[in-house]
Design goal:
- By secondary structure, the protein is mainly α.
- 83% of the residues lie in helices and 0% in strands.
- The chain has one domain: Up-down Bundle (Growth Hormone, Chain: A), CATH 1.20.1250.20.
- The protein is globular.
- The two termini are 32 Å apart.
Length: 445
């Protein structure tokens, strides 16, 4: 090849390269923006369940039983997650990633607004709780389909060597969503209790409409996943992706479920159970805990993408296992720090749990889990495995922890043991995962 030919080749590749760069950057940031909105709605419910739902929808129950009932409705969202993973995974592998993300955004935002309009128990009795459960189930289905699609849009658009970093961007949306929901509830939590219980708690839920509009406008600009487009050109879609995953990839399913359950449990013990434990048992002002959680989430906006960046250097599997070890070591000190009731110590407990331990665990999961499945069933594979883990981990974790706390007469030692046991199981599962199993086009390597 002469110099002129080489020059023409180089110049002709520039627009394509520039377009590719624009697409993977847009996909990464759009995934983060979308998951921010989805998680705002999801976390808002968890915070409200810990602080006010027992009084709004279960006022006739003992305070502890009312809290358990509120967390039970919280857990319903996790029950809906696997169904969402199955449904949206199926169509995401057959029709495309992008269209499913548009649907999940609406399925999250509309029920959230509806929750803000549900009358109290005093107005319509048990129908209030029944409506709450139905809306929560729809939210769970939406999140079950959202995570897999957002992760794949970021990872499958990203260039080789940067998939860990770009895969961490939708994970960073968790921090943004948590900040927005915590700030929203903290803003209304300062109201007199009568105002908070009558109308104040509804405002953050009704505000979801603004976020949904923003999310819709952002996601319409994102092109379809290049891996999906390539796969569609080369082979027909799998007729039943979920069944294909169960038949051909049972090992990968079980390993991800076992590995992810610990991370999910850790997060929801910190932001849901520990919030209720600190406010109700330790009598720490709820606004103080919410501010600490918000500070930890703010730190995660830096530590999450940094952990993703590090995972591209040392490997997602290695960083994930390091995070599990740190989690096990910090479980007991976390509750010891809360028990001091000292503002600075409680603040550091929450900040370290949400802003340091959680990102080390969560950031590498996108690429680590996605690489376990070929492209033609990848949406279904990661959605089903991750969402089943969500039921076993985060979904029932606050209820189990509340029961264990009662069994320990208010001492969280059994809760700590529960967390460490899950961590050890996760370490074993992660250690058995293969690395670099599937390339971007879905073929084995």
């Amino acid at each position: 090849m002469d110099l002129n030919t080489a020059s023409r080749g180089a110049s002709s590749s520039t627009p394509t390269e520039s377009k590719s760069v624009k697409h993977y950057v847009l996909a990464g940031w759009a995934s983060m923006a979308g998951t921010t909105i989805e998680w705002y709605d999801f976390f808002l419910y968890g915070t409200a369940a810990a602080l006010v739902f027992n009084k709004i929808f279960f006022p006739t129950l003992d305070p502890i039983l009312g809290t358990l009932a509120a967390f039970a409705t919280y857990g319903v969202g996790f029950v809906g997650r696997p169904m969402g993973g199955i449904i949206f995974g199926h169509f995401g592998d057959r029709i495309g990633r992008k269209s499913m993300l548009m649907v999940t955004l609406l399925m999250m935002g509309v029920p959230s607004m509806a929750i803000g309009l549900i009358p109290s128990y005093q107005s319509i009795g048990y129908w209030a709780a029944a409506t709450l459960v139905a809306m929560r189930f729809l939210q769970g289905m939406a999140v079950g389909g959202e995570w897999g699609g957002a992760v794949l849009m970021a990872v499958e658009h990203a260039p080789s060597g940067k998939k860990g970093f770009f895969g961490s961007l939708p994970q960073t949306g968790v921090g943004f969503g948590l900040i927005l929901s915590s700030l929203a509830m903290a803003a209304v939590a300062v109201l007199p209790e009568s105002d908070l219980l009558s109308w104040g708690w509804r405002v953050p839920f009704l505000a979801s409409i603004l976020l949904v509009v923003v999310g819709w406008l952002i996601r319409t600009r994102v092109p379809e996943s290049p891996d999906f487009e390539r796969m569609k050109r080369e082979r027909p879609p799998v007729k039943a992706p979920v069944l294909d995953v169960i038949r051909k990839h049972p090992r990968e399913l079980l390993l991800i479920i076992g590995a992810r359950a610990a991370e999910n449990t850790w997060f929801y013990l910190v932001v849901a159970f520990a919030l209720a434990y600190a406010a109700n048992q330790l009598k720490i002002p709820k606004t103080e805990i919410l501010h600490a959680i918000t500070a930890g989430a703010a730190l995660s906006l830096v530590t999450m993408p940094f952990a993703g960046y590090v995972s591209d250097w040392i490997g997602q599997k290695r960083l994930f296992i390091i995070g599990l070890v740190v989690m096990c070591l910090f479980a007991s000190p976390f509750f010891t720090m809360l028990a001091t009731r000292e503002s600075s110590t409680v603040w550091w407990a929450m900040v370290l749990a949400v802003g340091v331990v959680f990102p080390i665990l969560y950031a590498p999961e996108s690429q680590l889990f996605a690489s376990q499945f070929p492209a033609q069933v990848r949406y279904s594979g990661i959605s089903v495995s991750v969402q089943v883990a969500g039921v076993l981990g985060g979904g029932i974790a606050p209820m189990i922890a509340t029961a264990l706390l009662a069994g320990g007469a208010g001492n969280p030692r059994y809760v700590v043991g529960y967390m460490i046991a899950l961590g050890l199981i996760a370490i074993a599962c992660a250690s058995c995962m293969r690395v670099g199993v599937h390339s971007g086009d879905g073929s084995s390597r």
